Amino acid sequence: MPRAVKLEGSCHCGAVRFNVLSSTPVPYQLCTCSICRKVGGVGGSINLGAHSKTLEITQGKEHIRVYKAVMNRDTEDETVASSERNFCTKCSSMLWLYDETWPELLHPFASAIDSPLETPDEMVVVKTDSKPDYVRLPEGPKKVYKHYGHDSIEEWHKKHGKHVA
Fold first, then answer.
1. What are phi and psi of 40, to 5 degrees?
2. Residue partners of 36: CB distance under 8 A and separation at least 6
3. Is the pLDDT of residue 1 over 70?
4. Do residues 165 and 54 lie in contact, with contact meaning Cβ atoms separated by under 8 Å?
5. Which residues are paired to 80 by β-bridges?
6. What is d(CA 154, CA 24) in angstroms, rounded to the nearest whole number?
7. Element (H or E) spanning 91, and its range?
8. Distances, alpha carbon 47 to alpha carbons 1, 78, 107, 133, in Å
9. How many CA atoms lie within 13 A of 52 on its CB side?
């Protein structure tokens, strides 16, 4: 079985650079929830999976800050998410998501990865229940879910023979 893949990433301005090992490096899942759209751009975010203990910030640690998303904003159920979205303070690039609920995992934003990434045969689009009509879905084969798909990132990679140890 192939070994985990080293992903190298950076922010847009180059102030922050990092690398991390991933067993789930295929950018197959686009999240169109309001958080991913507002912090990641109009269409949403594509998160990869990685091993949190392997994260190495090689440059610009002082430029990294954390945003904790507001859930159910402007309602009586409003809370702050446990997940931490790490971003560059100089250019606002989203770098990775970490959640202490799953301390072994880190989710780099595919948009921050500089290493070549495989193009999936089929995309999975999640959280379309909060996607406005003007946000268009990617072209090509895809599975679309109002909430989340059936498989975790790891399960999807294993099912498609893309998981690396």
1. -105, -15
2. 44, 45, 127
3. no
4. no
5. 70
6. 6
7. none
8. 23, 24, 6, 22
9. 14
Residue 151: Cβ within 10 Å count: 16
Of 155, 118, 130, give the one whose Cα is nearest residue 5: 118
Q: Which DSSP helix (H) or strand (E) runs through 37?
A: helix 34-40
Contact (CB, 8 A) for 12 and 107 = no
CB 49 within 8 A of CB 66: no
Give the pLDDT of residue 165: 83
Tokens of 70: 């507001």
Q: What percent of the chain has pLDDT over 90?
A: 87
| Residue 8 tokens, joined | 């190298």
Residues, the chain, total?
165
pLDDT band at 2 (very low <50, low <70, confident <90, very high): low
Q: Are 40 and 91 in contact (CB under 8 A)?
A: no
- The answer to whether 127 and 148 have CB atoms below 8 angstroms apart is yes
